[in-house]
Write a structure and sequence with these properties.
This protein is mainly beta and 358 residues long. It has 2 helices and 31 strands. The chain has helices spanning 2-5, 7-24; strands spanning 33-42, 58-62, 65-69, 75-80, 84-87, 91-95, 101-106, 116-119, 123-127, 130-134, 140-145, 149-155, 160-166, 169-174, 179-182, 188-192, 199-207, 213-220, 224-231, 234-242, 253-255, 261-265, 269-274, 279-284, 288-295, 300-307, 310-317, 322-329, 333-338, 341-346, 349-357. The strands form 8 sheets. A 4-stranded antiparallel β-sheet has the order 1-31-30-29, with no helix packed on it. The protein is globular and about 55 Å long.
């Protein structure tokens, strides 16, 4: 009798729950990320066939080997070097510590004839098509082009700890806690001292692609992350946060391609700051962060870390959710992404992994 008396209440509650479920529950099941291996190739077996000029060739540097590879696994160029090397998507060079005239080769050039020379002593550094040379002692920096040679040079009284290069210019962080930013032609744009710590030192810095934002990790004892933005022609600090753990080596700081976020090594993981909302999210990771790669087609960032002799790769969604990781032991490693695929270099091998959401 009680069940019959309350039957209309049970029916009404069930209908109400069904309506709520229809509106609250997801319309479709969320897609899961799948890592699908595509191929693995050895860098010691270069391709002898000609490659079309329009083919994407990505640089690699593993141990004492450097070169380029394609999306289908062809090693289009491989060179071994005895001392040091620098490589980017546009240029490469090998050099000894006492080199005074460093030969530079373009992507499409063989090793028979250098395209031009860096006339000076120091250590070259390439970022895409931008060419730099750290001067002896580590106190100065010069920028070059193939056509004009040395564009500009800057010397300071303290050693360089970190550098960031973007299409908008160059930011250089020094051990005395000062960041200098320069235009593409070498004019001094900004001098910034974050301060706020017992011992001033710039451990990591990043200049955004447009040059309107600058970020850094600075100081020892009360180490902090600082973000500045250009407001009415003046650069102002808009966000800062203290780090839980002091870092004493140079660290990675990097803006997203659209400048909406900035990533930084926090000492315990990766910090992600929304540059519009000025909000922070931190994700614990193991090891020192070596590289951050954005996978635009899958709304992911891939992070490479090193913890002793083990490398770890973390996959993080753009909303700051860690969705997976894997690791391996190696002497040297790198990551890069292109067209929704992750490329992982390990000692003498490169592997392609399809990042698919299904």
């Amino acid at each position: 009798m009680k069940i019959k008396a309350n039957l209309h209440i049970i029916i009404a509650a069930s209908v109400g729950f069904l309506i709520l479920y229809i509106f609250i529950a997801p319309r479709t099941l969320s897609k899961e990320l799948q890592l699908i291996p595509q191929w693995t190739t050895s860098v010691l077996q270069p391709n002898t066939e000609a490659v079309d000029a329009s083919t994407l060739q990505m640089p690699f540097l593993l141990g004492q080997n450097m070169g380029y590879f394609t999306q289908d696994g062809k090693i289009t160029l491989m060179e071994s070097f005895p001392f040091h090397a620098a490589i980017s998507s546009s240029y490469r060079a090998s050099y000894a510590p006492d080199s005074t005239r460093i030969p530079v080769y373009k992507l499409e050039s063989s090793s028979n004839q250098a395209d031009f020379y860096l006339e000076g002593t120091g250590f070259p550094f390439f970022v895409e098509d931008r060419i730099y040379l750290f001067t002896p002692g580590g106190y100065g920096l010069a920028q070059y082009t193939q056509e004009a040679g040395k564009l500009w040079q800057f010397e300071h009284s303290a050693p360089i700890v970190t550098i960031s290069s973007s299409p908008a210019g160059t930011a250089v962080g020094y051990a005395d806690g000062i960041i200098f930013t320069f235009s593409p032609t070498g004019e001094l744009v900004q001098t910034f001292e974050p301060g706020g710590s017992t011992y001033p030192i710039i451990l990591g810095t990043a200049l955004s692609p447009s040059g309107t934002q600058l970020a850094c990790v600075s100081g020892i004892e009360q180490q902090r992350f600082v973000l500045t933005q250009q407001k009415n022609g003046v650069n102002k600090v808009v966000f800062h946060t203290y780090l839980e753990k002091d870092q004493r080596n140079s660290v990675l700081v990097q803006f997203s391609k659209d400048e909406s976020r900035v990533f930084y090594a926090s000492g315990t993981g990766i910090g992600i700051v929304d540059c519009n909302l000025l909000e922070k999210k931190e994700i614990p990771l193991k090891g020192n962060i070596l590289a951050i790669e954005e996978c635009d087609t899958n709304d992911l960032i891939c992070v490479l870390t090193k913890d002793s002799g083990r490398y770890n790769i973390y996959l993080i969604e753009n909303n700051g959710t860690l969705i997976g990781s894997f690791g391996f032991k190696a002497q040297a490693a790198f990551i890069t992404v292109a067209d929704g695929n992750l490329y992982v270099g390990r000692d003498t091998q490169i592997s392609k992994i399809d990042l698919t959401k299904e």
